[in-house]
Write a structure and sequence with these properties.
The protein has about 90 residues and is α+β, with helices and mostly antiparallel strands. It contains three helices and six strands; from the N terminus they run H-E-E-E-H-E-E-H-E. It starts with a helix and ends in a 10-residue tail after the last strand.
Length: about 90
């Protein structure tokens, strides 16, 4: 259901828009703040219990232009390719 809900962004196929978080595993402490920040509907993140780190599960669910997870990450472990956000794949 969520796949259908977020499959388009202003009429564009969301999978063709290069926008989404990237987690640096060397900086991620596994606090889970990004997981709960995005939890209610989009569920972009998950948690890897083996490595005790957050992981990006569904990048195409990330709302284009949103970077709340990046702003909230105290360890600067999340980045976005901001220069390519308007570039189509």
């Amino acid at each position: 259901m969520a796949e259908d809900m977020f499959s388009k962004w202003h009429g564009l196929d969301r999978k063709k828009i290069n926008w989404g978080p990237v987690i640096d595993p060397n900086k991620c402490t596994g606090c889970g703040l990004c997981v709960v920040t995005c939890r209610e509907k989009r569920n972009v993140f998950g948690y890897d219990p083996v490595n005790k780190k957050a992981v990006v599960l569904f990048q195409e669910r990330c709302m284009v232009g949103c970077n709340n997870c990046q702003v909230g990450c105290l360890w600067n472990a999340i980045t976005f390719e901001t220069e390519s956000c308007h570039r189509m794949k």
